[in-house]
Design brief:
The chain is of the alpha/beta class. It has helices at 25-42, 47-70, 107-113, 131-138, 186-193, 210-217, 237-246, 256-263, 265-272, and strands spanning 4-14, 17-24, 75-79, 119-125, 142-146, 159-160, 168-174, 184-185, 197-206, 229-230, 273-275. A seven-stranded mixed β-sheet has the order 6-5-4-3-7-9-11, with helices on both faces. A two-stranded antiparallel ribbon has the order 1-2. A two-stranded parallel sheet has the order 8-10. A hairpin with a 2-residue loop joins strand 1 and strand 2 (17-24). Helix 2 packs across helix 7. The longest helix has 24 residues, at 47-70. The radius of gyration is 18 Å and the shape is globular. The relative contact order is 0.15.
């Protein structure tokens, strides 16, 4: 009988030491079952795509959770980009290639399900409904209220109903599009969130370039990715290297495409996750 998935979740750090746990087979199955049941209660449209797609998102959820835990943040404002209209499908027609920038939305679910650090608060406007909004609510992820869904660079975005005493030491931008050729100043974006954050908070921009994903699936060399934000980046190579080596087992998937992605996860994360 299989007792462990051999995937690893970082619970946090204590006195500089990483606290982590192997994920049991039972815990993994229970998570996937709960996600599947929630999806079936939310919609009957494209169930195979949504069930397989969200299961494929779990590795990114684990990697993202582990990175945040390794950084020892206390309170993270997670700014989602997921809309049903943006992601009518989570996978391609052959159920092999993920649609980029949906998978980071699994991070708050992993955080809540395994009760890891830090505290993650997901910002949604009142009345918003989407697949991941439903999942975040179902898994008791911390929800705070925004005046609208965020778009990169908007200056009138606000977040309210924040628990008393909470200041964010990290703002996590999850998969927000920017028009081709456009860049934004990281400091300008940080200034828009400064009133609800600590003085030295980090801004994380997680954006998965879909052309990069396709070239990796095809077995080609990794292309360069365009700059999105200008400003001084913080070095997170140590945390990415730890998460890349210690999160996902090497034989987690039998299919060639996901296997190829996992084998290059260190480089992929460094190309997609930037901290300012």
């Amino acid at each position: 009988m299989e007792h462990s998935t051999l995937n690893n979740v970082v619970m946090g750090k204590e006195h500089g030491e990483v606290r982590s746990a192997l994920i049991s087979y039972e815990s993994d199955i229970n998570l996937k079952t709960a996600i599947r049941q929630t999806i079936k209660g939310y919609t009957s449209d494209k169930l195979t795509d949504k069930i397989l797609g969200t299961e494929y998102h779990i590795p990114m959820g684990l990697l993202g959770n582990n990175l945040l835990a390794l950084k020892e943040y206390q309170n993270v404002l997670f700014v989602p980009s997921f809309k049903n209209s943006k992601f009518p499908s989570l996978l391609d027609a052959n159920y092999k290639v993920q649609m980029s920038n949906a998978s980071p939305h699994m991070i708050p679910i992993i955080n809540a399900y395994y009760e890891t650090t830090p505290n993650i608060y997901v910002a949604y406007p009142v009345g918003h409904t989407s697949l991941y909004n439903d999942l975040h609510i179902q898994f008791d992820c911390g929800i705070v209220e925004s005046n609208k869904m965020y778009s990169m660079g908007v200056e009138d975005y606000t977040v309210t109903n924040i628990p008393e005493g909470v200041e964010f030491d990290c703002v996590y931008l999850a998969g927000h599009d920017i028009d081709e050729g456009v860049t934004f100043s990281a400091e300008d974006i940080k200034s828009d969130f400064a009133s609800i954050c600590t003085e030295d908070f980090d801004l994380i921009d997680n954006y998965q370039d879909h052309n990069l994903r396709l070239e990796v699936h095809r077995g080609n060399d990794m292309p360069s990715v365009p700059d999105r934000l200008t400003g001084t980046q913080k070095n997170i190579d140590e945390e990415i290297s730890y998460a890349s080596i210690n999160t996902i087992r090497s034989d987690a998937y039998k299919m060639e495409g996901p296997q190829r992605l996992i084998s290059k996860i260190d480089v992929l994360l460094k190309k997609t996750i930037k901290v300012y």
